[in-house]
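> call design_seq(struct)
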């Protein structure tokens, strides 16, 4: 499924968990770096507004659907993809890494949250090794020299998989630089996934997610920060529907 932004086209190129597992495990087995992004309406809005974010997204090796509107429009276009939210990918990615004998790194959030998330992960995934944890300072710039040094630190740690919990667009911008400064590391941009594991943020209950109204849950928890994001996201839906109908035809 292709999505046309004001800066160019973005394609969801991984449509299922099985396909993602095959691709990621092959990269891990060969110690080849990669970048994984989880696209949603907010990301498409940001790509309309920020050519740098669009360019970073074009550099992502794997793009999956993180949001029901992406899934719905893909079905409308007769190019269906499965819903693969970043938060739901953390444990499977860790399991694949552990099976391949590869260690992981955690980057983002706070030191306390990373520690709690690491404890949760090693408890849930047998044989998992957390080689590196980095909580960048407030105001962290993913395009800075400091960011390049952080990527080099992750590479030197021996980790083969690094979870980026910086939020968009910072995490995708940093992942796009991974090929240059940490070529043997796979970067997965997972937003609040580590905070959910740490318990510093509360994820919507399963029944809310099953009804595809997780956005309502988030909006109620943080209306001042999120109302404009969801308003802007809703405004691009008619355009995406038209794009899907054209691809269907």
């Amino acid at each position: 499924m292709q999505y046309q932004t004001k800066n160019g086209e973005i394609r969801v190129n991984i449509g299922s968990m099985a396909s993602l597992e095959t691709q990621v495990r092959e990269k891990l087995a060969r110690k080849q770096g990669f970048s994984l992004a989880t696209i949603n309406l907010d990301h498409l809005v940001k790509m309309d507004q920020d050519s740098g974010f669009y360019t970073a997204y074009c550099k992502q090796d794997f793009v999956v659907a993180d949001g029901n509107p992406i899934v719905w429009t893909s079905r409308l276009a007769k190019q269906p993809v499965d819903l693969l939210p970043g938060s739901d990918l953390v444990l499977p990615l860790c399991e694949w890494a552990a099976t391949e004998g590869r260690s992981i790194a955690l980057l983002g959030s706070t030191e306390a949250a990373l520690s709690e998330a690491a404890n949760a992960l090693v408890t849930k995934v047998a044989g998992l090794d957390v080689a590196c944890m980095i909580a960048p300072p407030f105001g962290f710039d993913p395009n800075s020299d400091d960011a390049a040094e952080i990527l080099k630190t992750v590479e030197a740690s021996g980790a083969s998989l690094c979870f980026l919990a910086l939020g968009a667009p910072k995490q995708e911008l940093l992942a796009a630089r991974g090929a240059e400064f940490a070529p043997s590391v796979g970067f997965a941009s997972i937003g609040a996934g580590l905070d959910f594991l740490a318990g510093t943020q509360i994820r919507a209950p399963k029944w809310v997610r099953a009804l595809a109204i997780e956005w309502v849950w988030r909006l109620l928890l943080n209306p001042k920060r999120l109302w404009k994001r969801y308003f802007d996201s809703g405004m691009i839906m008619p355009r995406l529907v038209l794009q899907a109908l054209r691809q269907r035809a």
